[in-house]
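## Example pair
The file below holds two records. Each record gives the amino-acid sequence first, followed by its structure token line.
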Amino acid sequence: MSVLDRHLVGAAAGTEPRLSIAMVGTRGVPAHYGGFETCVEEVGARLVERGHDVVVYCRRASDDDDGDRLSEYRGMRLVHLPALRSRTLETLSHTGASVAHLVRRPTDVALVFNAANAPYLPVIKARGIPVATHVDGLEWKRAKWGPVGQRYYRQAEALAVRFSDALIADAVGIQDYYTERFGVPTTLISYGAPRVQGDGDPARLAELGLTPGGYHLVVARFEPENHVDVIVEGYSASSASKPLVVVGSAPYSDAYTSRVRSLADDRVRFLGGVWDQDLLDQLYAGAHTYLHGHSVGGTNPSLLRAIGARAAVSAFDVSFNREVLEEAGRYWTTPADVRAVVEASEADPEGTLSRALASGMRADLYDWDLVADGYESLCFQLASLRSKAGARV
């Protein structure tokens, strides 16, 4: 009887078999950065609760004493390995070390995050470990990568298609891209939307001199494809009475940061990075509107956090954002559009409140338990491939 067959029988009897699952290619957990890390933490912890053995490969923050690092978190076993401190080599160097460790201690299934790690897939496959790759968004479109980096990402996508037993997409738009470009299927498993209670804690917001409902909000890394400059320019041209609060920074581009700041007037407040998650949640929940400019990354965790906080959202007009928001959103592409949606939101507070409530209804569709269901089902299917060499999920 195959692992998948045993899963079906076990599910009926309430005694599903236990799998060992490796999660590779991210910064690791606890999640402090990015959608991949949040997904690893939320899904990994739920898989542990369901009886699976989960190992997560984590990047060392420094070369300090190993005793300062967690060996376990929320039931997941953690392996901390080094990485080169370089924008172009950090991910690949850490994944290389992780794969070298994994093949010496193989698991039933490997989940690799980020198509950029695809060059290591043949090594995992050669060890007989079925592997799924979460391919992320269209990384090669990001302006921070020059021509060499963009070519690398395009080639890595092709390697992921060739050597993965399954591909995971977090948005229909990503599924469509892999179907059109490579003619291959993907498994659609989106992210979950964390739920934030209340309408913004007045005490936490007061720490920043803000009040619930008294500001517009942007949360984004300062990168061209996140369109922070378009938001700031459009807002500054508006007659808005509520300030614009900008959370985020530019890890690699001082020039872009300078451009964004040059477009701002005195109603724009730059907070930099906010690493206090409770404070950040209260900023989302207390915003009059949330302006979302991300355009290339698939289903975006910041957008999901905004709808989980029941924020009224105006988003850059791309398929990924429309997929999440549908009729709950308002959409823009130019500074003039931003100006219009900001002014309209302040002129129609009741309509803005209705959109905020609609955001909360959209958030109900993005549930981490359902996400974990999708990953668990896929892991059982992958484990069954050990007896079906050459198959693809």
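Second record, same layout:
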Amino acid sequence: MKLLEFIGFIVKYLLIGLGIAALFIVFMPDRFSSQDQQPTQQLKPIADTPRTQHGFADMLAKVTPAVVGIKARSQAFPLNSEACSSRLQALPPETNACAFLNNGSGVFIDNKGHLVTNAHVLDKASTIIVELQSGQQLKANIVGVDVDSDIALIKVDAEPTHYLPLPENDNSQVGDWVFAIGTPNMAFNQTVTQGIISSKFFSRVSHYIQTDAALRPGNSGGALVNAEGELVGITSLSTQSEQGEKLYQSYAIVANNVAHVVKQLKEHGQVRRGWLGLDGDMTINLDSISLELGLTPEQKQQLQDRISQLPYGKGIVITGINAEGPADQAGLQPLDIITKVNDEPIYNSIDLISAIWNLPPQTSVDIEFMRGDDMLNQTIKLGQRS
């Protein structure tokens, strides 16, 4: 009974509250009107709404006309020749021939009609056609090709309205926004992809930029620009991993390295690089060196003692010398440990190559090396790398 009495008490006061609310609605209707006393704000159609410019469209509009598409065609080869084996475009049947056709991109670097692209884009090329963003096509001639850096310099008989000058210095940093501009094979028109600089490193004869701005076949030789529209690299290649999903890594040759190559191609038609004449597996790995040179346990221990005197990881052990090469003529010997070149510390063979990659033949370099327990210095005049 007490429960029923409690429920009745609650119901009674709910009914009283509802009655009071009804009286307010009857005698004060304005207070409960659904009409808003303020004028209703009408939404403007999207097309009539002023838009603020965002992104990098203005910058890209200035730089993209400097980037072109390139079509490079080889001479005709007989169908039964060894050349007709890959990457072919067959000519009409009556010619009984084939030809190579490469597609790539290029960048105007001055107002005189010079362009840079990748050397592999011009492989076997006898005819080179440059297609501007406007659709105009121009014939180009080769000024010079450097296979080692994969850079080629070509020229058209026209003055471009837009170009991207090659910088003297490299001020790009990991984390910078970058834009890759080029003409992939799969597209009819120029494309722009965006990313950041993921890494920077030296390989063979050039410094490289790794970026997550996507590259595809046909982007080779295109432009990598920063957020200010400055040329920071020439797009070169991409790699693909087939592990679950496709992961692409894209690379560009640092623009001021390209400037060095272009300068030599203009002056000499080729790039002349200095050469030390060292050979073998130059490392600081004791087991690898011992195996390569066939060291006795005593010799291996002596080398271990010498390596332990150096800061961890510093130095490379000479394991081979080219006879009559610059290092041989200067008196360097196997098991000498090179620690510095021109006062720059050396930690691996890449450091050694990087220290001399842009030095021409006959340049003198100062080599610091360890022989026995002695630290020595020797000046070596570079030869020419073949």
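Notes on the second record: Helices lie at 2-27, 57-63, 255-268, 286-293, 297-308, 326-329, 349-356. DSSP finds seven helices and 23 strands in the chain.
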